[in-house]
Automatic annotation (TrEMBL):
Keyword Transferase: yes
Location(s), subcellular: Cytoplasm
Entry EC no(s): 2.4.2.22
UniProt xrefs under Pfam families: Pribosyltran
The reaction(s) this protein catalyses: XMP + diphosphate = xanthine + 5-phospho-alpha-D-ribose 1-diphosphate
InterPro entries (alphabetical): PRTase-like (IPR029057), PRTase_dom (IPR000836), Pur/Pyrimidine_PRTase (IPR050118), Xanthine_PRibTrfase (IPR010079)
Protein name: Xanthine phosphoribosyltransferase
Pathway connected to this protein: Purine metabolism; XMP biosynthesis via salvage pathway; XMP from xanthine: step 1/1
Gene Ontology cellular component list: cytoplasm
Species this chain originates from: Pseudomonas saxonica
Alphabetized GO MF terms: xanthine phosphoribosyltransferase activity
Keywords: Cytoplasm, Glycosyltransferase, Purine salvage, Transferase
Gene3D superfamilies (UniProt xref): 3.40.50.2020
Length: 190
């Protein structure tokens, strides 16, 4: 997706050979027009996948997930990282390790929002080691639902997440596949 590649080149900041900062348009400040384009592209890619729900993790996945859900006409559920007074029933939960934050947290979804009849599209901002994707897949399976595929805004292809998901037979569609961050420069897989 050329608009995303351009935004990453112009506004992304390479912090190390493992970390790409995109807080100017994706995960702190959000570019609504770019999010619309991302939602349009995910909807195009998954329009025939029978998606009935979209699942993401708060907070950075919410904007692209909502735009995709709007386009596909399906609800969006976000797995919460923090317990709330209103989220108390027998929750669907999984542990997820954050590569950038270097912390582990438990994410949760209410079982009343995810049924065994659902075909679920996972949307996330990044795919690195695949831990967030695996946590969401675990929650979807706990509900007895089916994974329709995974839509990733930015994939760090030099890390093992994609290979693991491919090996498990999941369809993964990434809009920007980063080959390398070496030397402070973003190189894409075309």
């Amino acid at each position: 997706m050329e608009a995303l590649h351009k935004k990453i080149r112009e506004e992304g900041i390479v912090l190390s050979d493992q970390v790409l900062k995109v807080d100017a348009f994706l995960n702190h400040q959000i570019d609504p027009y770019l999010m619309k384009q991302i939602g349009d592209e995910f909807a195009r890619l998954f329009k025939d996948a029978g998606v009935t729900k979209i699942v993401t993790i708060e907070a950075s996945g919410i904007a692209p997930a909502v735009m995709t859900g709007l386009n596909l006409g399906v609800p969006v559920i976000f797995a919460r990282k923090h317990q709330s007074l209103t989220l108390t029933e027998n929750l669907l939960t999984a542990s997820v390790y954050s590569f950038t934050k270097q912390t582990e947290s438990t994410v949760a979804i209410s079982p009343r929002h995810l049924q065994a009849t659902d075909r679920v599209l996972v949307i996330d901002d990044f795919l690195a080691n695949g831990k967030a994707s695996q946590a969401l897949i675990s929650i979807i399976k706990q509900a007895g639902a089916e994974v329709a595929g995974l839509g990733i805004v930015i994939e760090k292809s030099f890390q093992g997440g994609r290979a693991e998901l491919d090996a498990q037979g999941y369809r993964v569609e990434s809009l920007a596949r980063v080959k390398s961050l070496a030397g402070g420069k973003v190189t894409f897989i075309d």
